[in-house]
Amino acid sequence: MGTKLIILLVIILGVVAIAQLVRVNELTAKHTGKNEEDVPLRDKVFNANMMLLNMIVFYAFFIWLMLRFGYTGLGPAASTHGIETDWLLNLNFVIIIAVFFLTNTLLFVFAWKYVKKPGRKAFFYPHNNKLEMIWTVIPAAVLAVIIILGLRSWNSITAPATEEYENVEIFSYQFGWTARYAGVDNILGDFDYRLTTANNQYGIKTTSNIEDAIHMMRVGGPGEEGIEMLEGILNDRTRVLSADQRKSFKTDLARKQRMIRSLEQMKLTHNDSLNSYANNDIVVPDSLVLLKGQNYNFSFRAKDVIHSAYFPHFRAQMNTVPGMTTYFKFQPIYSTVEMRELMNNDEFEYILMCNKICGGSHYKMKMAVRVLGPEDYLNWQKTRLTYDGSPWLSFSDAERAVEEAKLLDKYREIAQSVEQN
Amino acid sequence: MGAVAHETHHGHDHHEENFVSKYIFSQDHKMIGKQFLITAIFMGLIAMMLSIFFRIQLAWPGESSDILNVFLGDRWAPNGVLNESMYLGLVTIHGTIMVFFVLTGGLSGTFSNLLIPLQIGARDMASGFLNMLSFWLFAMSSLVMVSSLFVESGPAMAGWTIYPPLSALPQAVSGSGLGMTLWLISMTLFIASSLIGSLNYIVTILNLRTKGMSMTRLPLTIWAFFVTAVLGVLSFPVLLSASLLLLMDRSMGTSFYLSEIIVGGEMLDNVGGSPILYQHLFWFLGHPEVYIVLLPALGLSSEIIATNSRKPIFGYRAMIGSILAIGFLSFIVWGHHMFVTGMSPFLGSVFVFTTLLIAIPSAVKVFNYLTTLWKGTIVFTPAMLFAIGLVSTFITGGVTGIILADSALDIAVHDTYFVVAHFHIVMGMSAIFGMFAGIYHWFPKMYGRMMNMRLGYVHFWITIVGAYGVFFPMHFVGLAGAPRRYYDYSVYESFNMDSYNMMMDLNVIITVFAIIAAFGQIAFLFNFFYSIFRGQKAPMNPWNSNTLEWTTPVEHIHGNWPGEIPEVHRWPYDYSKPGAEEDFIPQTVPVKEGEEEH
User: Fold this and answer.
1) Does residue B561 belong to any structural domain of this protein?
2) Per-residue pLDDT tens listing for chain B (598 residues)
3) Chain B residues inside the 8 Å CB shell of A51
4) Residue of B nearest to A70 (CA)
5) Distance between CA B285 and CA B274 in Å, rounded?
C-alpha cells in the first residue's frame, strides 16, 4: 500500500511540477512577446550540442556493451557449419558496424555543424546524379558479396544428408522433447499420430501398436471412452442425457468411427517385415546424447503445436511442425567436457530449447544435450535398450570384445576427424 | 463528380454544424485525422503499459510487484507475480496494438487524412462518408481489442503473428479461446477500416489534385501515403482470408492449418492441413505491413527535414523511386520470416536475394537525408529533432536487417532478442519518431495552436535516450542466445550461470530505460492536451513552409479554402533558392521569368 501511495504521489507531483514550469514559460513568453514558432538561437545551439553529446554517449554505451557483453557467453561454435556461420556473422558485423558508425556520425555531426546561425545561408542543392549513382552502386556491390557468401553457406547447411549421417528423430510436445535413434540399421521406424496411446507416446508404427490402437478405439482406456462404451451410452434408453451431452457423445463417436476405419486400413497395408525398422530404434526421453564428430541428420516432429528446436551452441535451429517432418543436420565438434574447458565453466551443458511460442510453459521446454567422446559414448550405448527391449549393441558373448573394440576404433576415427580440421 | 463539383458545393456556404456532426460523426478529413490520432494515443498508452508490465517480470522474475497486482489483479498476478500465460497475453496484445492500432491506424489514419486533401489542394477526401466509416470501424476494432484483455480466459496468447495450431486450439493455451475470437473479430473490423481508408486515399490522390499539382510536384509525404495505401489494399485482404480460414478451423472443423494433432490428450481428426500455409499468408501481409508502418514516417520526415534544414530534399526523384522500389520489393520478401520453418531451401535463397535488394533503396534514402542536412541551416524544432532521430534509428535498426536477411546467419539468431531489437528500432522507433515528428510539425494545423517547444525538447531527449537504452542492449541479449517470448531465462540458470547473469544484467538495464522512456511520455501527453486548449495561437505558416496546407486559414473550415483552391506552379522544395528574397517559395507562387523549375 505504501509504495502505491508513493507512486501516486510522485505522478501527481510530477504533473504539478510540469504544469508550473509551463505556466512560468507561458508568462515569460507573454512578457517578452516571444512566439513559440521562433526558435531562439540559444535553443538551436543547445540542441545542436546535444546532438553531438548524444552521439558520443550513444557510442560510449555501444562500446561499453561490446566490452562487457560482446563475448556473448555462448562460447565458440560447437559444430562444423557453426564455425562458418560465426565467421560470416563476424564479417557481416564488421561491415554493418562500419556503416553504422559512418552514417550515424555524418548524421549527428551534420546536425551539430549546420545549425542555423545568423548570417549563414543554406546551400541550394537539389540533386546530383553522380553522387546518387555512387551510393546506389557501392551498397549494391557490398550486398552482392554478402549475398554470395551467405548463399554459399546456406546451400551447404541445407544440402541433403548422405548415408554416413546418423538419423535421429526429435519429437516435440507441450512442453518437452524426446529423442529417437535409428539404431543399427540407421533407418527410423515409421510413425503415425493415430497410433498414439498411453503405451505408444510417439505413435511408432508396428503391428502390435496398430492392434493396440484399434483396441483402444474400440474399448477405450483410462479417461477415454471407446466406441463400444459410447454406443452403449447413446443406446441406453434408461439413461438421461442433456442435448449437449448427447451431441458431444455423438461427435466423439463419429470421430472415433472414422479413426477406427482408417486404423483398420492401416493394419491391412502394414507389412510385418517393416516392424524391425522400428524395433531396433532407441527412444531416449530425457536427453540427447551425441558422439563427437558424428554427422547427424535430425528429423523433427511435433505432437500438438509448432515448436522450434534451438541449439544455440551449435548455431542450429529448425521449427517442428505438426503434420510435417522437418530436417536439420550438423556435426558436433567439441565434447561436453572439452566445451567446459573452452568455456572455463565446470557446470556447462549443451542445451536444446524451444524457440517458438507454444503455450504457458514455453520458457521451460528444454532438453539437455550431451556430446561424448568415443569411450563415454560407447559406454552409454551399452546401457540403452531398443524399442523392443533388447540391448542397443547386441553381440554374442564370444564376439562382444572384438566388436566393441571395432566400434571404439570407428568412434575414435570419427572424433579425430573433427580435430584435424 | 470530382474536384469541380466539390468546389461549387463547398466553396461558399458554410452550413451550421451541431456537436455530433462536428466532433463525433464528422465527415471532415481534418476532424477524422484528429479522431484517429487521439484513439491511437490512447491505444499507444495501453500498449506501453502492457510492455512495462512484462518488462518488470523480465528484469525481476518472480518478485512480487504491487504495480502488477494493482493492474492485473489476483487472477493474472497472484501475490504480484505475473502469470506465465498472461505474460504471453501481454506480449501478444502489446505487439498487436503497436503494429496495427498505433503505427498503422494511428500513423496512416492521422496523417493521410489530415494531409492528403490539404497538400494536394482538395476540399476533402473523395468520399467523406467512407472516411467517417473507416474511423468508426477503427474505433470499434480498438474497443474489441481492448475488451479482449478483460476476458476470463485471457486475451490472445499466441504472439501477434497468431500462428496456428497454437491460435486454433483453446486446449493448447487459454488465450486461444474467447480471447482469440475477439482478436480475429477486431482484426476483421480493422482490415475493413484500413481497406476503406486506403481506397479513399488512393482515389483522392489520383483524382482530386488541384490545378498544376502534377505527380512530380507532390510532396514526398503524399507519395509515401500513396504507396502505403496501395500496399495496404493489396496485402490486407490476404490477412483477412488467412483469418477467415483460421476462424473456420477454429469453429467449423475444417483443416486448412491443422494436421495430425494430439492436444491435451485429445486426438484431432484433422489431416492434410498445413500450418506453414498460414505463415505464408500472414507474412504476405506481414512484410508489406512493415513498410505500411515505415513509409508514412519516412514521408513525414522528408518534408520536415527539408523544411527545417531550409534546403530542398536532396534527390527528389530518387526518393520517389526509392519509395516505389521499397513498395514493390516488400511484396516479394515475406519468406525471410520463414527460413527455419522447413520451407524449401531454394525458395529461401530467392528470398535472401530479394530481401537484401531492399537495402539499396533504403541506403539511397539515408544518404539523401544526410545530403539534405549537409550545408543546410537547421532549425531545431521538436519535429526536426524527431525526424533526425528517425534517420538514426532507421540506420541503426536497418543494418542489422542485413544479418537477419541472410538465411545462413538467421538460423543462429532467428526468434531471439536480436530480432526483437532489430524490428523495434527500425520499425517501432522509426515509425513512432515519424509520428511524433508529424504531431509536433502539424499540430498548429490540427488545433490552430502551438505546442510548447521546450517540453518538446525534453520529450525528444528522454525518448531517444530511453528508447535506444531499451532496444540497443537487446542485440546483446539475443546474441547471448535468449529466445524471445520467454517468461524468464531460468533455463540458462542450471548450466550456464555466466549467460544467465549476462541476460539478467541486460534485462535490468533495459527495464530501467523502459520506465524512464515511459515517464518521458508524460511530457508529451501533458504538452499535447494542454496545448489543445491553452497553447499559443498559431500563425498561418509557422514553419515558413512551401506546401499547400499552410495556405489554409488557421480556423478550420469545411472545404479547407475559403475562396478558390490555389493553383500550384512549382515543386514543394524551393527552400533557400538563389535569387529569391526569402528562404522559401510556396508552391502557389508562379515561376518567375528565367527561373528554372526543378
Assistant:
1) no
2) 344 444 444 444 455 677 777 778 888 999 999 999 999 999 999 999 999 999 999 999 989 988 899 899 999 999 999 999 999 999 999 999 999 999 999 999 999 999 999 999 999 999 999 999 999 999 999 999 999 999 999 999 999 999 999 999 999 999 999 999 999 999 999 999 999 999 999 999 999 999 999 999 999 999 999 999 999 999 999 999 999 999 999 999 899 999 999 998 888 888 899 999 999 999 999 999 999 999 999 999 999 999 999 999 999 999 999 999 999 999 999 999 999 998 999 999 999 999 999 999 999 999 999 999 999 999 999 999 999 999 999 999 999 999 999 999 999 999 999 999 999 999 999 999 999 999 999 999 999 999 999 999 999 999 999 999 999 999 999 999 999 999 999 999 888 888 899 999 999 999 999 999 999 999 999 999 999 998 889 999 999 999 999 999 999 888 899 989 999 999 999 999 988 888 899 999 998 888 888 7
3) 388
4) B476
5) 18
Query: Residue B485 belongs to what domain range?
Result: 27-253+275-551
Q: How far is CA A129 from CA B305, B323, B369, B435, B519, in A?
A: 21, 18, 15, 31, 45
Candidates B556, B541, B550, B569; CA nearest to B210 is: B569
- Enumerate the residues of chain B whose CB falls inside 8 A of the CB of residue A43: 380, 453-454, 457
Bridge partner residues of B449 (DSSP): B537
Which CATH number describes the domain made up of A283-420?
2.60.40.420
Overall number of domains in chain B: 1
**Residue of chain A whose Cα is closest to the Cα of B539:** A37
CB B111 within 8 A of CB B197: no
Rg (CA), chain B: 24
Cβ pair A39:B275 closer than 8 A: no
- Which residue in this structure is represented by grid cell 519516412? B298
Q: What is the CATH number of the domain that holds B322?
A: 1.20.210.10
Question: Whose CA is closest to B299, among B375, B191, B374, B218?
Answer: B218
Do you find a cis peptide bond into B135, omega within 30 degrees of 0?
A: no
C-alpha cell belonging to residue B598: 526543378
CB contact under 8 A, A126 and B357: no
Chain A residue at shortest CA distance from B346: A155
In A63-126, which ranges are E strands? none
Cell of A366: 528444454
Structural contact between residues A205 and A192, judged by C-beta atoms closer than 8 angstroms? yes
How far off is chain A from B57, nearest CA to CA, in Å? 13
Contacts of B473 in chain A (CB under 8 A): 65, 69
Interchain CB distance below 8 Å, A92 and B523? no
**What residue type is assigned to position A67 of the chain?**
L
Decide if A114 and B377 are in contact by the 8 Å CB cutoff.
yes
Instruction: Using an 8 Å CB-CB cutoff, list chain A residues near B364.
Output: 132, 135-136
CA distance B176 to B250: 9
Shortest Cα distance from B144 to chain A (angstroms)? 23
Instruction: Tell me the angle at which helices B275-309 and B359-373 cross, rounded to the nearest 10 degrees.
Output: 20
Q: Do you know the residue count of chain A?
A: 421
* Strand stretches in A242-379, DSSP E: 282-284, 287-291, 296-302, 307-311, 316-320, 326-330, 350-354, 366-372
In a domain, B270, yes or no: no
Q: What is the pTM of this model?
A: 0.94
**8 Å CB contact of A19 and B526:** yes
B574 in a structural domain? no
Q: Residue A397 phi/psi, 5° resolution?
A: -55, -35
Residues of chain B neighbouring A348 (CB-CB closer than 8 A) = 495-496
- Within chain A, all domains assigned CATH 2.60.40.420 are found at 283-420
Kindly report the nearest CA distance between residue A374 and chain B, in angstroms: 23
Indicate whether B569 belongs to any domain.
no
Terminal-to-terminal C-alpha distance of chain A = 63
Three-state secondary structure call for residue A300: strand
